[in-house]
Amino acid sequence: MRLTLCLSLALLAASTASAAPRSLLDAQVAPSSAQVAHARAADGLTVTVQPGDEGYPGVTLTPASGQTWDLAAYGHVAASVRNLGAKPVTVCLRVDDNGDWKANPWNAENLYLQPGATGVVKVIFGHSFGHKPAYKLNAAAVTKLLLFAGKVKDAPAVFRVESLAADGAAGEKPPVDPKSVRVVPPGGVLLSAKEGVAALVETRDAAAAWSGSASNGTLRVTLAAGKREGRVALKPPAGRWNLRAGNEARVTLRNDGPAALTVNLTLESNGGPTDSFTATLAPGARQETVVPFLRDQLWDGEEKKSGTRFTSETAAGVTLILRRDAAEGEAALVVERVAVATPPPQAPAWLGQRPPVEGEWRLTFRDEFDGDAVDTNKWSFYGENYWDKVTHFSKETTFVKDGMAHLRLMKRRGHHNDDPARKESDYATGFLESYGKFTQRYGYFEARMKLPTAPGLWPAFWMMPERGGDGPQWQRSDTKNGGMEFDIMEHLTRWGVNRFNIATHWDGYGKEHKSNGSHAVYYTPDKDGFVTSGLLWTPGELVFYCQGREIGRWKNERIMSVPGHIMFTLPAGGWDNDWLDDARLPDDFLIDYVRVWQRADLAGGGAGAPR
Asked: Which domains does the chain have, with CATH numbers?
């Protein structure tokens, strides 16, 4: 059992003997500026920060020997800190090693303290800011420790470091939050007589009993005496189920009693429930009921609660509500099997051949990637990276091969845009945009793509404004003044290849920023594992498509009215993703084709003319 194994390993790690704690308060102390003062006493090291402009005022501690600390026998450094000031303070503890400064060779954590409060800030080696995986610190060569606050504006910030020590076993891992556990059912099977995962059962006005074990058995549910309705919920033993391997659940039920039954089925998740589906069962009848993850009510930009809410990687349970016509007599239901699945792909004949609606359409842009290099008359593979701090764009990670454009993310240190004058980072990634080469106002935009699967990747097919002229790109692509960002297909690999989101953003990315969209669009990849996404953009209206099926629309006067250019990006991270796993890299985002059509009545001159 994967869950049991993970918990056992966590307990084993916790029980591993560690060296005796080593105090580090005997270090040399240096203030970051004249804004900071410090004093030693028997009760610890007191740091006073006067109001000023310094962004990170504090102190730096270095080994008294003048060399480095060898903390290889330990798993973390922790500081006990007391806020002696009159206002709340955030204290950051940072641990640095002797690595290249360009690689940010440190781990850090923050501690927020109310006046008079005491707390402990602990930096686990190899983790930062919430104990998330980060820079792999060389604990054998720690060069310095930093303790600092944020910018101090009004009253002085005063905190006392009452203890500072290395402790814990080497290789220490952060504790596992039970809520964060994700149970992946083997083969997508949650319950069956032959295979499944351990499950908990909650009932109301019903009784439930396993035939077999809670991991390999069927579940018999009976209504309580005198009850016409009862409820049973099948839940993971800890955390949530990760059902991202499919896009629907199939539940096999059998009526094991003499009375007819109706059963309503719903899947619950952190994001929200699926639609509810009903099975009607005569005595002795068996039926498989399909519960799609995608809601029947598609996203409508004017309806805040429209679109799918169910998030398959955080499935909280399967709920069944049983009903019978009369309260007398036995009522029994056997849950024989619960599994996730993916239905066969389906696509209309028009997909890839023309827009989804009638009209006088003309193909205005096309790239089938049939050559052996990126067509630089259509695309740029250099640009600015606004989305993460760990990747850089490189010509070597954007290439054409076997009739596909490849955007590759790989572990390779280098300079952004292959320019020695630009910043370096540890990962290279691909990038394509038609900025300055092709832009169009209105029309139908479509691409066929295969998504990567390595953890922590963020592929997207999207559009940004392009007003033309001689101004800087940030000005020409401003989402204010009629501009807008269109996310036609945006995916985080944590979700699995059956899901992506669509979105729009406008009025900049600051305080006035606005957005809407649907964060859980489920689909079936085609026979080759590809998804074809499209956007029909007409004056005042957007209609999104996936595999030739409409998945959402928004009709509003604010829809972008200036030309837009096309982008394909593959940064790391995103708002809801896993961390990169070097063992799963390199991985590629494939683009089979890009095709754009324009309708004759929308192709008038001016800034909106396609070019």
From this structure: 22-169 (2.60.120.430), 182-341 (2.60.120.430), 364-608 (2.60.120.200)
